[in-house]
Amino acid sequence: MQKSYNNYSRVLMFLMLCVVVRSQLTADFYARSCPNLQNIVRKEVKNAVKNEMRMAASLLRLHFHDCFVNGCDASVLLDGSDGEKFALPNLNSARGYEVIDTIKNAVETSCNGVVSCADILTLAARDSVLLSGGPSWKVVLGRRDGLVANQTGANSALPSPFESLDNIIAKFAAVGLNVTDVVALSGGHTIGLSRCALFSNRLSNFSGTGAPDSTLSTSLIPELQTACPATGDGNNTVPLDNRSRDLFDNRYFVNLVNGRGILQSDQILVSSDSAQSTTRSIAQLYSTNATVFFCDFVNSMIKMGNISPLTGSDGQIRKNCRVVNS
Questions:
Q1: How many helices (H) and strands (E) does the chain have?
Q2: What is the signed CA dihedral for 80, 81, 87, 91, rounded to 10 degrees?
Q3: Which candidate in 63, 65, 143, 251 is catalytic?
Q4: Closest Cα to residue 305, out of 63, 34, 29?
Q5: How many other C-beta atoms are found inside a 10 Å radius of the C-beta of residue 59?
Q6: Which residues pair with 316 in a beta bridge?
Q7: pLDDT per residue as tens digits for the range 256-308
Q8: DSSP three-state, residue 239
Q9: Closest Cα to residue 49, out of 168, 112, 134, 171?
């Protein structure tokens, strides 16, 4: 009971402290048509995270990868060899599709043909953060599902772990997100795992230097080299935040300040030349002030969730999140 009260108090605190961005969607969209929606989604996400704690990060990332391509329209969920699932940033990487299927089936049992997959994915991302110890926020709803996937768009629009900070900032700007959003949303890496293939280039002969990435803490290098042997296939995984791997907190930013960012695209938020005039001060602030990070993360999630949604009569309400209605 005390834990529930503390969670409720935390929600109220963030609603008061954070200046929430506006949205064309509405929080009460399903108030009559599916009044128990949020309880259904929360229950299924809780079950999934209880079964595998990593799933929280996977569902959060799935929402991110959806919204950056065609807007938040659940196009990332569509099956097909030409779909976004087979784009390079998602292939053998994006996961959690079965959990969304389970949630959709539970929602359909209660409210048949009413709730979009796009809204389910948005709610699941919020609940994943909350159930990992992070903030909560009021999710605005009313998105509809897209009719097509965009594999080419996924390959070009999604930020890569190997990209420069300037390129990453440009990709965020292309969908209406700013530098603060870059840093705040990167903070989602406070939970989850990364495959060795996405950072092993930093462990030896980085950029042809004959040595590991100089921005990587020397105390972390042997640990990562053990976890990711040079003779391996790159599929081993390590926590993106090895100080509190399953807890949504600001330790990710503490790690960056100390040269312990796992992905190159994370560490450059602090260590690159471009960071000096863009992201470094924000990351440093978040490393010492979790409240500011949580508030900015909430606002950035709401902004991201409002990227080019289909509303009204656009798109459809898919019966099966994997396929367009026949």
A1: 13, 2
A2: 90
A3: 65
A4: 63
A5: 28
A6: 145
A7: 999 999 999 999 999 999 999 999 999 999 999 999 999 999 999 999 999 99
A8: strand
A9: 134
Query: Could you give the percent of the chain with pLDDT greater than 90?
Result: 90
Q: Cα separation of 261 and 216, whole Å?
A: 7
Show the CA angle centred on residue 125, arms to residues 86 and 149, nearest 5°. Answer: 30
d(CA 255, CA 242): 9
How do the residues of the chain divide into helix, strand and coil, expressed in percent and rounded to 5? 50, 5, 45
How far is residue 306 from each of residues 16, 27, 125, 187, measured CA to CA in Å?
21, 12, 14, 19
**Residue with the two structure tokens 């994943």:** 128
Say if CB 135 and CB 65 are below 8 A apart: no
Which residue in 128, 160, 85 sits closest to 323, CA to CA? 85
- Chain segment 116-125, per-residue pLDDT in tens: 999 999 999 9
Active site residue 65: yes
3-state DSSP assignment of residue 303: helix
Locate the DSSP E strands across the chain. 193-195, 237-239
DSSP 3-state of 238 = strand
